[in-house]
Amino acid sequence: MEAAVFVPAHAPAAGDMKELAAYNRTKVLAVGERLLSLCQRPVTFEEALAELFCQYQLTMNFEQYVLVGSTVRSFLSWLKDRGELEVRFVENRLLWAAAQ
Q1: Which one-letter DSSP state was computed for residue 89?
Q2: Closest C-alpha among 11, 51, 59 to residue 34
Q3: Could you give the percent of the chain with pLDDT greater than 90?
Q4: Across-strand partners of 14?
Q5: What does each C-alpha distance from 59 to 11, 38, 69 come to in angstroms?
Q6: How far, in Å, CA of 54 to CA of 47, rounded?
Q7: CATH code linked to domain 18-98
Q8: Does the pLDDT at position 3 exceed 90?
Q9: What confidence tier does 55 reach under pLDDT thresholds 50, 70, 90?
Q10: Alpha carbon distance 46, 55 (integer Å)
Q11: Distance (Å, rounded) from C-alpha 80 to C-alpha 53?
Q12: Which of 8, 18, 46, 85 could disulfide-link to 80, CB 3.0 to 4.6 Å?
């Protein structure tokens, strides 16, 4: 991508985004790995979300549940699309599990 200035949402404007993009990519992959680790045993979305909150020392409230929950659902879907996670239905609950 080329531009004179980039204006990211959560960082100062800059002419070169390569370092920030690399940092963001590293963080995205780290969260994905963390979720894969959590899913070594089948877990519900709620269990995965709660455990992530504990690991990152976050406090759950309604706004965080909605905002971060949406992001975590996107991560889970992304990992499923990549073939790294699979879903199962057990006792009418959707469980996320690392692909075998």
Answers
A1: E
A2: 51
A3: 76
A4: 6
A5: 24, 19, 13
A6: 11
A7: 1.10.10.10
A8: no
A9: very high
A10: 14
A11: 21
A12: 85
Q: Are 88 and 97 in contact (CB under 8 A)?
A: yes
Q: Report the residue count for the chain.
A: 100
Instruction: Please give the model's pTM, rounded to 2 decimal places.
Output: 0.84
For tokens 């499923």, name the residue: 80
DSSP label of 10: T
Q: How far apart are CA 64 and CA 49, in angstroms?
A: 10
* pLDDT tens digits, 7-48: 877 778 878 778 888 988 999 999 999 999 999 999 999 999
* Integer Cα distance of 40 and 98 in angstroms: 5
pLDDT at residue number 20:
82
Question: Domain coordinates of the chain in residue numbers?
Answer: 18-98
Query: 91: helix, coil or strand?
Result: coil
How far is the C-alpha of 75 from the C-alpha of 52, rounded, in Å? 12
For the chain, the first-to-last Cα distance in angstroms comes to 37
